[in-house]
Fold this sequence. Notes:
The protein is mainly β. The chain has one domain (3-180). Helix content is 4%, strand content 58%. Strands 8-7-6-5-4-3-2-1-15-14-13-12-11-10-9 form a 15-stranded mixed sheet, covered by helices on one side. The protein is globular and about 45 Å long.
Amino acid sequence: MIETAFWRRLDVPGHDAARIAPTAGGWRLAGTAVFCAGPVPACLGYVVDLDADWRTTGGRIRGFRGAAEVEHVFERRDGDWRLDGRLQRGLADLVDLDLGFTPSTNFQQLRRLGLPVGASAGIRVAWFDLGETALTELPQRYHRLDAGRYEYESPTAGYRAVLEMAENGFVRNYPQLWVMEACGRKHAG
């Protein structure tokens, strides 16, 4: 299984393209987000490595925000999270890395949860966004409404919406933040 997605950002100018593909030990989510970060452009390539059960084992981001270089390495091993080699305390029981600048990292959370229609689950993720210097815990709640929609809530971020899913497992519509776009152009004939 190799799946891809392409999104347009709604709150600021920007796009993101992502791909999930199998590896020898699990999965690799990789992509690039390009968007306006305040008054300057940002371009961030990202990778999130996952085990066979969709739990994060590590990741990295690399790119720029205006004139500043951006590079971070995430590691999760033996129950501990490290950011750029520094131990991140209080996060040992979290298994998901959520990157705040891309809609792609909901993919592995939903695959791992495998919620049937009507079921709900609260999870806590290790969250990171552009400009941060540490991982933080972010509570989230998913309630599966039907085959293609989840009610999603991130109470500490003050965000609640119904996420619409594409058939490939990526979020198709992340209200007020991201919407999936089709690639290719139809030509008149």
